[in-house]
Amino acid sequence: GNTTEDYLRILQNVPTKRAAAYMRVSNPVNSSKLSLVEKGICEDIQCKSEELVIRQQGLYLIYCHLNFHFPNCSNSPTDLKIEFLVNDKVNRQTLSTWCASETCQEKTFKTLFQLHLTYLNVKDRVSVTLNYPKFLNEISLPNENVLGVLRYSDEM
């Protein structure tokens, strides 16, 4: 089945009193931030078009599951940078080098799952950016690209 739909069903049935968001992401329209698709969970967090706005302070788990498609292999490696932003400042950054010529096939698919635990205050804005959003696979696995935020505890 569709993994994202399974996770969504599980999260909807978990009795929680904490803030949670689980939103599908897609290529950005006019910025480097990934766009949030209005499908998913958004409880005690304000879900805007490109960011999640925190309503309760606390320790949060931010996670992002992204699928990439490299339609043509390059003779040189591709450095893919993913950034979690809090209030438009980099809070966590990951750099992955993919698609080197010796390991490439004609088409390459890759998956990246990032986790970050951080303290967030009321009105903090959380978003994710990619340096190469054109490689985000929205055709084969459009529902598998997600950004999630879960309130882990009240304290640090």
UniProtKB/TrEMBL annotation:
InterPro entries cross-referenced by the UniProt entry: TNF_CS, TNF_dom, TNF_ligand_SF_member_8, Tumour_necrosis_fac-like_dom
UniProt domain THD: residue ranges: 1-152
BP-aspect Gene Ontology terms: CD8-positive, alpha-beta T cell differentiation; immune response
Example GO molecular function: tumor necrosis factor receptor binding
Any one GO cellular component localisation term in the record: membrane
Signal peptide boundaries: none
Family named by the database record: Belongs to the tumor necrosis factor family.
Protein name per UniProt: Tumor necrosis factor ligand superfamily member 8
Phylogenetic lineage: Eukaryota, Metazoa, Chordata, Craniata, Vertebrata
